[in-house]
Amino acid sequence: MNISDGELMSGILASNGFELVERPEEADVVLVNTCAIRDHAEQRVLGRVAQLNGLKEKNPELLLGVTGCMAQRMGEELVRKVPYVDLVMGPDGYRGLPDALGTIVASKTSGVNGLGAESAHAGPGLVQLEPRKKGKGKGGGLTVLDLDPTEDYEGLELRRTSTVSAWIPIQRGCNHRCTFCIVPYVRGPEKNRNPQAVLDEIRGVSERGITEVTLLGQTVNSYQNGDWDFPRLLRAVARMPGIRRVRFTSPHPNDVTPALVAVMAEEPAVCEQLHLPLQAGNDRTLKRMLRRHTVPEFMEKVEMIRSGVPDIALSTDVIVAFPGETAEEFQDTLSVLREVRFDDAFTYRFSPREGTPATRFPEEDLIPEDEGRARLDELIQLTRGIQRQINQAEVGWVEEVLVENRGREAGFMLGRTRRNKVAVFRGRELQMGSYQTLELTRTTGATFVGSLVGDGSGKEEG
Ligand code: SF4
């Protein structure tokens, strides 16, 4: 979602006369787009922003902004923490980005920070902080933090970073309240885009030669707009001319329905891949997380998906050391992972996020850091071992890959299979975005090494 939001901001700025430069040193405006999901990510942002502030010594006119979920979460606290930041803007503010930058430039010239009522650029959601005294050069900053239920993101041009694959946001925000999660507080309630606008956008990317799209939403499969539910939209996307691969992320297990599985099974363009967040494999923990399903219900969904799409590759998210998780409950999670055997797992130690309900569990429920780390290590060992076994069994398979990039080593290319497995292979300068057939010859555990089948022209792939 953040890559997509970055493309949105670049697009909005490009259509207002800004140019994208390669390096921060060349820029007049630097925006750091942020994630708030974990404390670690936020700490890294603070470090990066401090580093970028060094550029102001050479270029005092440089505007430095922090955008995205961390900006929304911290708001004015962020301005106080890093007073040299000129702009703090949450995810619903991007349409007003050019105006906000214009306002800051005007205020710098006049020596008053923030948005005055008399400003030609005045718009909703722009908040004036303390006036900056002329010449002081520090303190204050413009914050744009209103979550806007009317912002539908329509009519905005994205500036896409890939010529191979496109992220298509179809939904923003979330109606759930998982107790560990900050997303509903920084992105607001669920908003689903107009289906025709989504299809028009995909038609546009297809006309530019992009053949793979990934539909994005916090609980993407709860999408509903008028008569359009997610299975209907997915089928329509899968049938669009020129689209060869469709993925979507992240679904909520509760919204995995027979209708959705039918579309996945019936539409050739829908890839045999699904990221299905488990979070925990114990009912009491799931309840405390407010995930709104039980382990048996999750397993039923896995069963439903696997019977509809037998060769599907499943991945998941798991959080360990959630407050109150006992050693036995953690073992339950490992048992579920052994049973499901996910192809990939994103694993985390619980990170308390201020403002979320999980921070209100009693202190005695908190899992000591060393215990949490030990659980995470055990979890990683298990999930990596399962991944290695699965991938080893796939060595020798012949798979179609979409060429995404050059490999790290000269002469190598990188492609992705329909089941979302990455393979590097020796290839002459193959065209990015072409489809090739590979034999998977070896696995490192997480990724594959393959060799081209055929002449590499991709012509046999049509
Ligand atoms: S479903 Fe839960 S974890 Fe996912 S974004 Fe919504 S609140 Fe967060």
Give the amount of beta strand, in percent: 15-25%
Count up the domains. Answer: 3
Radius of gyration in whole Å, from Cα? 24 Å
Structural class: alpha/beta
Q: Report the CATH superfamily of the largest domain.
A: tm_1862 like domain
CATH topology of the largest domain: pyruvate-formate lyase- activating enzyme
Poorly predicted spans? 113-139
- Tally of DSSP β-strands: 20
CATH class of the largest domain: Alpha Beta
Strand order of the largest sheet: 1-2-3-5-4
Helix content: 25-40%
Bound molecules: iron/sulfur cluster
Which CATH architecture of the largest domain is right? Alpha-Beta Horseshoe
Sheet of most strands: 5 strands, mixed
Report the average pLDDT across residues: 90
Spatial gap, N to C terminus:
31 Å
Shape by Cα distribution: globular
- The count of helical stretches stands at 14
Topology:
Layout lengths: L1 H13 L14 E6 L4 H15 L1 H4 L4 E6 H6 L1 H6 L5 E3 L7 H14 L15 E2 L14 E3 L20 E5 L1 E2 L10 H5 L3 E2 L2 H13 L4 E5 L7 E2 L2 E2 H9 L6 E5 L8 H9 L6 E3 L7 H7 L5 H14 L4 E8 L6 H14 L3 E6 L19 H26 L3 E9 L5 E6 L4 E5 L8 E9 L4 E6 L9
Parallel strand pairs: 1-2, 2-3, 3-5, 6-9, 9-12, 13-14, 14-15, 18-20
Antiparallel strand pairs: 4-5, 7-8, 10-11, 16-17, 16-19, 17-18, 19-20
Helix pairs in contact: 9-10, 13-14
The site of iron/sulfur cluster (SF4) has 10 residues, from α7.
